[in-house]
Design goal:
Keywords: Cytoplasm, RNA-binding. It is found in: Cytoplasm. This is SsrA-binding protein. By secondary structure, the chain is an alpha+beta fold. Helix content is 34%, strand content 37%. The chain has one domain: Small Protein B, Chain: A. The strands form 2 sheets. A 7-stranded antiparallel sheet has the order 1-8-9-2-7-5-4. The chain is globular and about 65 Å long.
Length: 155
């Protein structure tokens, strides 16, 4: 029996607020050595990043990996596009999703799995303003009912 060792480095909570998540995929990512060291130190930001399928490859844009302090000449551009590693079948599914109106690919997590850097990308559909308001109202209602339930159970 083999246990997976997962350590979450960065999460994109804004994605869950701005999009309806249809499904998620785990992808490897092509990095240089100094980028891996920076990610292990937690110096990565995926808030405004997105992915696109181009020429049969999935490319991740605007993922900011801070330069490694001791990396000197080996450091790469912090915002350079990075290739994601997925199976061909998964890429063709993503092409099908993103060709439809309103769907995009958004990274939701960057994590270490058994020592390798992985990115969880989500197939997402953009929320309208009224959808966001509705989600906030539901969250507030749920929080209030939990609070009332907790108070009732105390006495």
């Amino acid at each position: 029996m083999h246990i997976e060792d997962i350590k979450i480095i960065a999460q994109n909570k804004k994605a869950f607020h701005d999009y309806f998540i249809e499904g998620t995929y785990e992808a490897g990512i092509v990095l240089s050595g100094t980028e891996v060291k920076s990610i292990r130190m937690g110096k990565v930001n995926i808030r405004d990043s997105y992915a696109k399928v181009e020429n049969g490859e999935v490319i991740l844009y605007d993922m900011h990996i801070s330069p490694y302090e001791k990396g000197n000449i080996f450091n790469k551009d912090p915002l350079r596009p990075r290739k994601l590693l997925l199976h061909r079948r998964e890429i063709s599914k993503l092409v099908g999703y993103t060709s439809r109106e309103g769907f995009t690919l958004v990274p939701t997590k960057v994590y270490l799995k058994n020592g390798l850097v992985k990115v969880e990308i989500a197939v997402a559909k953009g929320k309208k303003l009224y959808d966001k308001r509705e989600a906030i109202a539901e969250k507030t209602l749920r929080r209030e009912t939990e609070r009332e339930f907790k108070i009732k159970n105390l006495y």
